[in-house]
Write a structure and sequence with these properties.
The complex is a heterotrimer of chains A (about 375), B (about 200) and C (about 325). Chain A has about 375 residues and is an alpha+beta fold. Chain A contains 15 helices and eleven strands. The two termini of chain A are about 30 Å apart. With about 325 residues, chain C is an all-alpha fold. Chain C is about 65% helix and about 0% strand.
């Protein structure tokens, strides 16, 4: 980064004919190490005073070669690796992979396993949204909501740990069902966590969404038009904040989402405030689904009739699911072995981030943080 | 090649009535009431009991399935190497040799595997539990022990004696939730009623 | 009898120095209080270990840590200016305490222009911020310094305007006179703090004080997420402690004490019957109340963007402060104010 004229020396300014002062544009690197980006994302901004002229995200700092790793592993190992992509929504990463295998091999999943998968997925969605709720407030300067969010996360994470053994990386979904059944007390603890969350959500609504300062920082900031969002393949809460009521759980129901009663919250303007609103409302909906599933949990097996060694038939399949951040898709190509020949992952954060450069033009520097914080991405998901 | 984009309406399933945002609820309030409400929330939290667990004086009890550390029961291990093979990170180092165990009263003894070295490199281990799951003789167990941090990364490779010591913290198997019926068996429908029988 | 003891010039000198000596421990105590309140607001416990009882020595430990750090001056920096800055901020913050009365005669120096002097002393910090940003030879620092200077200058006006309404009510700029006008010297003889008449002015004063201290929600100049600590980025160790950390808390106590003096009645008890409790206790209680408010607000709100901050000052606070002056003037026409 060039720094030819340190302050203290005469600045170079050129007086043009019309009498206006032309100042130099400054290129600033936000990141890759920066407290406000969710991971190692670098945003190169060209600044003119306080306004951003051009901003460009530079990705790839966290590329770990996931897709190549998956080619050398069988599905039990793959399930454990997949939650490392979008680490905030572990179970939701594993589910579409198992669904792909199940569809390819035509395996039957017991009802109990399906219900448990839905419960775990929705709890994970709540955990993910709580995390982003907290961190968005933190980036805007509100240091308290993040602590409340982590407190709500605690009970639910304890429920997840009780069932799966892990708090962030679960490795619990297997093709055909689950690894093992949930222990006694899981339903009670999960319901307790959900009820506590439902009581605490009004706190976030009033502390953040109702606060005039928060509104002043987010209303009208980072507006995304529906056209542009659809052009770039944006999905998830960001697309829904733009006004498109597209949710894979309703459009192409997987597991048994069509049996549950829930709404899809949708925004109107596509600015940061609407995105945040969609996040909070989705938490309420997920809590509703999880509650229904927990109360109606049927008796049965946790794992279907699955051969000991899973040999995938030759073929290819694409399965998609609603990750908390957007649409997650797996394109699985198999050539008859236990290990996939190729497994391409379509991650939501990658497409979501591609619109950022358009949203950064003409905004102020502090708004950069607000925009990035409201885009809900995880760098592990972008780079894989 | 121009790609036909489906119209936006077709993305939304027919008949679906999504709940739209009603910004008026949050946007049209008298200026200042939102902030006062925020202050009241923080005050309410100020006077309530903190949730901190003061580690290391107080310690939370981890659930039994918690993936803290892997413990080895040496008597059950037959050096089949399945765990080392299935580990996605190849962090289990096993060395063994074959030997013959004398059986009184028989001319030929029994060929057995003796375990020489069993080490797990916890710096590589990703705590997935596949080794525990795949061991056919139940020689590996999960234990909710988590206080084994080291100053040197090589200290994280734990040998057989440490792994055997950790057996003390392995919890007993726990009861499953109501309605659990174990994995489905062949010729049974997913809800465990045998196929072919009347409902 | 106590007055005779205090009349002794050597005792007076000792007391005056004593006030300045107390500032640093008071800063440490206030820092600890802020950490604890902030923690409990966030449902956690804050410092618990240093010193034993609820970590009272946390800020002391922080101070020792600052002192032990390396003394770094950037190569391109203007050494003289860079080193002068902490002295200036400390000076500006400490000078406020010269006129704050803890009793009718318990004041270091009761200047006739006390209120004016306080506002002038608190604005010394502006030049220090500019000096810090310029001499650091760092783009971020300069950006932060310009933001901070613009903010501080913008919020001087509501501060001055709301304080001048108080001066109108009391008829004098001397802080002792202002306190007395809220009690024994008021037209009705009743103990009525000026906050009752300044329903508009008191909140404006508090907003202006928060902004003068660059505390959340007005802390954009030191917003970590963007500019690390703005003009103070290059300051490490003891320069940071004495240039930014300590003066912020000292000025906080000072301005809160000023607010307590001019709006809440200073060292006067709420009712004359309670005047056996020394005035300094009342002053501390009232200052503590305002400090609590400042700390509570800090942990509850996100921060305003710089242009919103400026808009708030110029388009909202200043017109309201002017309105407040008119209202106060109208109130002065009545015989009982």
């Amino acid at each position: 980064m060039s720094d030819q004229t340190p302050p203290g020396a005469p600045q170079q300014a050129v007086l043009t004919g019309a009498g206006t002062l032309r100042t130099e544009e400054m290129i600033l690197n936000v990141g890759p190490q920066h407290p406000a980006t969710h991971g190692v994302l670098r945003v190169m901004v060209t600044l003119d005073g306080e306004r951003i002229v051009h901003g460009e995200p530079v990705i790839g700092y966290m590329h770990r070669g996931h897709e190549k790793l998956l080619e050398q592993r069988d599905f039990r190992q793959i399930t454990n690796l997949l939650s490392r992509m979008d680490w905030l929504s572990g179970i939701n990463n594993e589910i579409p992979a198992s669904i792909a295998v199940e569809r390819l091999m035509e395996l039957e999943v017991p009802r109990r396993a399906t219900y448990l998968r839905v419960i775990l997925a929705e709890i994970n969605r709540i955990l993910n949204h709580l995390m982003f709720t907290g961190s968005f407030g933190l980036e805007l300067g509100a240091t308290t909501p993040v602590m409340y969010a982590f407190r709500e996360r605690e009970l639910l994470q304890q429920a997840m740990e009780m069932a799966t053994g892990g708090r962030m990386h679960f490795g619990f979904i297997r093709p055909g069902g689950l690894k093992e059944d949930v222990p006694k007390g899981f339903v009670a603890l999960a319901l307790k966590g959900i009820r506590q969350l439902q009581k605490a959500i009004p706190d976030y609504e009033n502390l953040l969404m109702g606060s005039e300062i928060f509104k002043a920082r987010t209303v009208g900031v980072g507006r995304l038009s529906t056209e542009r969002a659809l052009d770039h393949g944006v999905s998830g809460p960001i697309l829904r904040a733009c006004g498109v009521a597209y949710d894979v759980r309703k459009a192409e129901p997987y597991l048994n989402y069509d049996e549950f009663d829930f709404d899809i919250p949708v925004g109107t303007t596509g600015d940061a405030y609407d995105r945040f609103f969609v996040l909070i409302e989705e938490m309420k909906e997920s809590a509703k689904i999880a509650e229904q599933a927990l109360i109606d949990l049927p008796a049965g097996s946790h794992l279907g009739d699955v051969p000991k060694r899973l040999t995938l038939p030759k073929g290819e399949i694409y399965s998609r699911a609603e990750n908390p951040l957007g649409e997650l898709g797996y394109f699985l190509v198999s050539d008859g072995d236990a290990k996939p020949y190729r497994m391409k992952v379509r991650t939501p954060s990658f497409s979501n981030i591609s619109v950022v450069s358009h949203m950064l033009e003409g905004i102020y520097m502090p708004d950069l943080i607000a925009v990035l914080g409201s885009m809900f991405f995880v760098v592990g998901d972008i780079d894989r | 090649m121009a790609i036909e984009k489906p119209p936006v309406d077709e993305l939304v399933p027919r008949g679906e009535q999504p709940r739209t945002l009603s910004p008026s609820k949050h946007k049209k309030r008298t200026f200042g009431t939102g902030m006062l409400k925020g202050l009241s929330i923080t005050f309410r939290h100020l006077i309530s009991k903190p949730v901190t667990v003061q580690y290391p004086d107080e310690k939370d009890l981890l659930p039994p399935r918690s993936r803290g550390v892997i413990a080895l029961k040496e008597e059950n291990c037959t050096v089949c190497m399945l765990c080392a093979r299935e580990c996605p990170d190849w962090c289990i180092y096993i060395e063994g040799h074959k030997s013959t165990r004398e059986i009184p009263g028989k001319k030929r003894g029994k060929k057995v595997n003796i375990l020489d070295r069993f080490a797990i490199d916890y710096a590589l281990c990703m705590y997935c539990g596949i080794c525990v799951e795949v061991c056919p003789y139940d020689a590996l167990f999960w234990a909710p022990e988590y206080e084994y941090a080291e100053h040197d990364i090589t200290g994280l490779t734990h040998e057989m004696d440490t792994l055997k010591d950790w057996m003390y913290s392995v919890p007993p198997p726990e009861e499953l939730e109501d309605g659990a019926m174990g994995p489905a068996v062949k010729n049974q429908l997913p809800d465990n009623t045998p196929k072919g029988e009347g409902g | 009898m106590i007055e005779e003891v205090f009349a002794n010039p050597y005792i007076q000198l000792a007391l005056k120095l004593g006030v300045l000596m107390i500032l640093l421990p008071a800063t440490l105590a206030l820092g600890w209080v802020e950490l604890k309140i902030g923690a409990h607001i966030q449902h956690r416990m804050g410092p618990m270990y240093p010193g034993g009882f609820h970590g009272w020595a946390q800020t002391v430990a922080d101070g020792i840590k600052f002192v032990l750090k390396e003394n770094v001056v950037p190569r391109n920096a203007d050494r003289v200016v860079f080193s002068m800055v902490p002295f200036i901020t400390m000076l500006g913050a400490a000078l406020i305490f010269v006129v704050i009365p803890a009793g009718q005669n318990l004041v270091i120096e009761d200047l006739e222009v006390g209120l004016f002097y306080v506002l002038a002393a608190s604005s010394i910090g502006v030049i220090a911020v500019l000096m810090a940003g310029w001499s650091s030879a760092n783009k971020f620092s300069l950006l932060g310094a310009l933001r901070a200077a613009a903010q501080l200058i913008a919020y001087e006006l509501p501060l001055v305007l709301s304080a001048s309404a108080v001066a109108m009510l009391a008829g004098s700029l001397s802080l002792v006179d202002i306190v007395q006008a809220q009690g024994p010297a008021s037209p009705t003889g009743l103990y009525i703090p000026f906050a009752v008449y300044q329903v508009l002015g008191f909140p404006i004063f508090l907003c202006a004080v928060t902004a003068e201290l660059t505390r959340p929600p007005f802390d954009m100049p030191v917003a970590e997420a963007e500019l690390i600590t703005g003009p103070w980025t290059e300051y490490t160790g003891i320069r940071f402690a004495f240039g930014f950390f300590a003066p912020e808390y000292i000025a906080m106590i000072g301005l809160a004490a000023v607010g307590a003096t001019i709006y809440l009645g200073g060292y006067l008890p709420p009712v004359p019957a309670l005047d056996f409790i020394p005035g300094i206790i009342w002053l501390l209680l009232k200052t503590g109340a305002i400090l609590f408010l400042l700390i509570w607000v800090r942990w509850s709100f996100p921060r305003l963007r710089e242009d919103q901050l400026q808009k708030f000052a110029w388009k909202v606070l200043i017109p309201l402060a002017l309105l407040n002056i008119f209202v106060t003037g109208a109130l002065k026409l009545t015989p009982w104010v």
